[in-house]
Amino acid sequence: MKNNLRVQRAIKNITQAELAELIQVSRQTINTIESGKYVPSTVLALKMAKVFSVPVEEIFDLEEGD
Amino acid sequence: MKSKFLFPTWCNIVGYLMVIPGFVLGYLFIFHNYEIPGFGFQMREKSNLFQNAFENFTNELAVFLVIVGLLFIAFSKGKKEDELTARLRLNSLYWSVMIYYIIYNFGFLLVNYIKEIPFVGEHILELNIFSPLLIFIIRYYYLKYAKADSFVVGKPKFLPNVPFRSVGVILTLIGLTVFVFEAKDNIIFSSNDLLFVISYFVMITGLLVWSFSKNKIEDEMVMQQRLESLQLAVYFNYGVLLLGTLLFYSAFYLFLMLYAQFSLLVYFVLRMEYVRFRNNKQLNTFEEGMNYEK
């Protein structure tokens, strides 16, 4: 699964730490999600989508092999 | 979340093929002193108090068959492994380890009474070694098949960080220190020694509380790491036990068995500390990649 979380953060101009605070997770988790090593739960993905005011599919996308 | 670190499906059947003869052999060895004739070799010139000259490997074989067999049954891939089975598996593991050690710990307080129970009392050490696995197997397969439609796979509950983690660490260290101090003086463990019994109980309680309390930073990723660590700790624990079974004998093996009563929690706790350290390190060395600082 690929994500463009970093791009979304840039658009909204917030740091990892600030995003982490907004959705109540640790900064490590944001970091690990961005590097593609951790797949967030549905609830977390929806929370992120709300923060960036975009649909979830604009942040996360399925790839071959998922 | 998919299951990690599982054996292939065929290991399930192999597990049963190992466990049944293993239990039978173990039963024969313990209760009838049965040894497979000639199954062993001359280890050393002469027998001494701690070690026989001719070591028979029947009991090692029984232990090996039972433990590996149970591991295979417990951790082999089902026909259809998906998110649900992964969650179910980890929840069952969490539940069974916790329940087992709580029962074990309180059972230990009553050790003087348990010693009287005919079968269990004399072989409590051996029984305890593989009981967590057995409980997990029963719990997991019961949930998977009997309760598949009705069981709600919730988040496993852990104790809040604020008092409990420190309490757990302190209790473990105090209990361990007193226990080691007492054990140094009494090689033969006497359950009449109150201080010994209490310090052991305190140590196990500490380990339990430490294992099942949250870190300061505990979100969904840490929770997943926690449950995977539990699985790894189980593997490591039984791996070490198997190695020890092959390498140690007589009195040394007795010490190993005693340690193996609680070593699972020790490995789990240590692994979680390592995970915590690694998470922190990741933060410090990977500072915000591309800079989106304000």
Structure description:
The complex is a heterodimer of chains A (66) and B (294). Chain A starts with a strand and ends in a 5-residue tail after the last strand. A two-stranded antiparallel ribbon of chain A has the order 1-2. Chain A is mostly helical. Chain A is globular, with a radius of gyration of 11 Å. Chain A has a single domain (2-51), classed as 434 Repressor (Amino-terminal Domain) (Orthogonal Bundle). Chain A has helices at residues 5-12, 16-23, 27-34, 42-52, and strands spanning 2-3, 60-61. The model of chain A has no long low-confidence stretch (mean pLDDT 91). Helices cover 69% and strands 2% of the residues of chain B. Chain B is mostly helical and 294 residues long. In chain B, helix 9 runs antiparallel to helix 10. Among the domains of chain B are: 159-213; 215-284, no CATH class. Chain B contains eleven helices and two strands, in the order H-E-E-H-H-H-H-H-H-H-H-H-H. In chain B, strands 1-2 form a two-stranded antiparallel sheet. The A-B interface holds A 6, 9-10, 13-16, 24-29, 31-32, 34, 38-41, 44 and B 1, 217, 219-222, 224, 279-280, 282-283, 286, 288-290, 292-294.
Short description:
Chain A has helices at residues 5-12, 16-23, 27-34, 42-52, and strands spanning 2-3, 60-61.
Present the secondary structure layout.
The complex is a heterodimer of chains A (about 70) and B (about 290).
Chain A lengths: L1 E2 L1 H8 L3 H8 L3 H8 L7 H11 L7 E2 L5
Antiparallel strand pairs in A: 1-2
Helix pairs in contact in A: 2-3
Chain B lengths: L10 H22 L7 E3 L11 E3 L1 H18 L7 H27 L1 H4 L3 H5 L1 H23 L14 H25 L8 H18 L8 H28 L2 H11 L2 H23 L9
Antiparallel strand pairs in B: 1-2
Helix pairs in contact in B: 1-2, 2-6, 2-9, 3-6, 3-8, 3-9, 7-8, 8-11, 9-10, 9-11
